[in-house]
Write a structure and sequence with these properties.
CATH topology of the largest domain: Spore Coat Polysaccharide Biosynthesis Protein SpsA, Chain A
CATH class of the largest domain: Alpha Beta
Helix content: 40-55%
CATH superfamily of the largest domain: Spore Coat Polysaccharide Biosynthesis Protein SpsA, Chain A
Low-confidence stretches: 262-266
Mean pLDDT: 94
Largest sheet: 8 strands, mixed
Number of domains: 2
Radius of gyration: 22 Å
Strand content: 5-15%
CATH architecture of the largest domain: Alpha-Beta Complex
Length: 413
């Protein structure tokens, strides 16, 4: 085994069963306090099959979890056992009950344990380029989910390093919850499209149940992190700068749009907060924030080895919000470092976006939100952005119709 498995991977093999040869796809599902995993497994079972597919379910809990969570996990394990009994599965189903220390337990750790095991099994099967597909225990997918991934990662050239699968939240029956999930998904799509408008090169959706990565690349970037929330965002912002990252838009994942307290933020938490409030509008980042970002990113190459006089002129042309943020992050020191490490302007630009990465973008947005541009209703900002991004398209005032437009544009329709 290589350095990754000896130094960084979760130690210990989870399953004695040998992997299939060939082994092409591994779908990893963290499952915590989940009362309804069977529809997820049924959805994968109904997919057009791909030879050499494994599904790894990590039923997980902290060692100090509440008794009712432990009971639910035991019920889940029993439900999975009953579901698979006597059934001819289109994939090899592997289930592990993970009891983790309270300090490390969470979705990031559970996802890591499953992805490390998938990578280990690909090595054992002699396929270092095997494809790890992240999924969630409350998600479903189109019937071509497996075949679309296989075709993209095995039958195209050059092969991608990773991908984000197109997604749509199903609309709940409850009208209040339905309006909440519409506005929340509109916020997610507005955010990514606003980053694209701003010129950010890694503007992609970071939804855990849509992530795909090749096993060799997974190991190269140090594997999954152990964060208890936001693990998908952090992982993808390590993966995307590796290049060859694509959007897979010819199939769809459907993450659940429901209330949940499993993680401190995300869809479930947002829906709980929405139901508890009485506001008719979800808010999002002010479009003015992205306009300032666009002005900054348009000048990136000009920062390369700029003399003091030229540098001061560049900075003076930026909005005050951008100038003050750069001061906040000690930009002069960082710029000197970037220039020392960059022999060409191309290298400088690559290094720039390792400095001004997805986390720095969020830091910028929070800074300008707090000091310059307060959050605004998502429908209002999404309409303004749509007019800039897609001139000539009819733009509705209704959240649902706006979301349909954003979905169509994201899917390339």
């Amino acid at each position: 085994m290589n350095t990754y498995f000896s130094r960084y991977a979760y130690q210990g093999k989870l399953f004695a069963e040998k992997p299939a040869r060939p082994l092409h796809l591994s779908v990893v599902i963290p499952c915590y306090n989940e009362p309804d995993i069977i529809p997820t497994l049924e959805s994968l079972q109904q997919c057009a099959p791909v030879t050499g597919t494994e599904v790894i379910v990590i039923v997980n809990e902290p060692a100090t979890c509440r008794p009712e969570i432990h009971r639910q996990n035991r019920v889940t394990l029993q439900e999975i056992a009953r579901w698979r009994q006597g059934r001819a599965l289109n994939f090899n189903l592997l289930v592990h009950h993970l009891v983790a220390p309270a300090k490390t337990a969470g979705v990031g750790f559970a996802r890591k344990v499953g992805m490390d095991e998938a990578a280990r099994r690909f090595e054992e099967a002699g396929n270092r380029h095997g494809v790890i597909c992240c999924f969630d225990a409350d998600s479903t997918c189109d019937k071509n989910y497996l075949t679309a991934i296989y075709e993209q990662f095995y039958l195209t050239s050059p092969r991608p390093h990773g991908a984000a699968v197109y997604y749509e939240h199903p609309y709940p029956a409850d009208s209040r919850l339905r309006e909440g999930i519409i506005q929340y998904e509109l916020h997610l799509r507005y955010y990514v499209n606003a980053l694209r408008y701003g010129g950010y090169p890694f503007a992609r959706h970071t939804i855990g149940s849509t992530m795909i990565v090749r096993s060799d690349i997974y190991q190269k970037i140090g594997g999954m992190n152990k964060r208890q929330a936001g693990e998908d965002f952090y992982f993808l912002h390590k993966l995307m700068p590796m290049g060859a990252f694509i959007e897979l838009n010819n199939t769809t994942v459907y993450p659940a749009g429901r209330v949940s307290d499993r993680v401190p933020f995300g869809t479930g938490k947002a829906m709980g907060k929405w139901l508890q409030g009485n506001s008719p509008a979800l808010t999002t980042y002010n479009l003015q924030s992205f306009t300032g970002l666009k002005q900054l990113f348009a000048r990136v190459e000009d920062f390369y080895r700029a003399e003091d006089k030229a540098l001061n002129k560049i900075l003076a042309a930026l909005p005050e919000s951008g100038q003050l943020f750069l001061q906040e992050v000690s930009f002069s020191r960082e710029l000197a470092r970037l220039n020392r490490q960059s022999k060409t302007v191309k290298t400088f630009v690559n290094n720039w976006y390792r400095f001004f990465d997805g986390f720095m973008v969020l830091r910028y947005l929070h800074f300008v939100r707090d000091h310059f541009y307060p959050d605004q209703p998502v429908v209002q900002e999404a309409r303004k952005l749509a007019a800039l991004r897609w001139p000539g398209v009819n733009i509705s005032n209704l959240a649902g119709e706006l979301l349909t437009l954003y979905r169509q544009q994201d899917k390339g329709l």
